[in-house]
Design a protein that fits this description.
about 160 residues, alpha+beta, 6-stranded mixed β-sheet, two-stranded antiparallel ribbon
Amino acid sequence: MRKDVACRLLRRLTRGVVVLCIWTIGLSIEGRTADSPPETLITVKTPQGALIQAEQGLMFRERLADDRGMLFIFGDAQPWTFWMKNTKIPLDIIWMDGKKTIVHIERNVPICTRQDDGCPQYHSDEGALYVLELGGGRASALQLQRGMRLSFKQP
């Protein structure tokens, strides 16, 4: 049993590192910086009709427009863990299930200035296939709540 738990934790950590590496490699190949406009945006629509343009990479960003965010799309439902290392602005983190229904929201998650890997970690208690990050306070401004369904098309 303990070996199974250790294997699951290692898979989660590996996926997080892979996502970060893919993002970093993509930026360097394209010659972009974290502040450069992304080439692919995913439009996320709230139940009230607000549109959010989800882009790639919020690390090192010093500001984020109200209509911008980042959407993570995972291959399997898990309580994905996030942290704020190298993130310079507070964020709202929104976990969604396979039907794009909000299962958990962490609001106004503060930045972490630690240089080691000791930043607090945030996760949902339920499995999620999607995680949307918005600027801190946007989830409240958009009146997003657990149980609401967002809509978007996967690329």
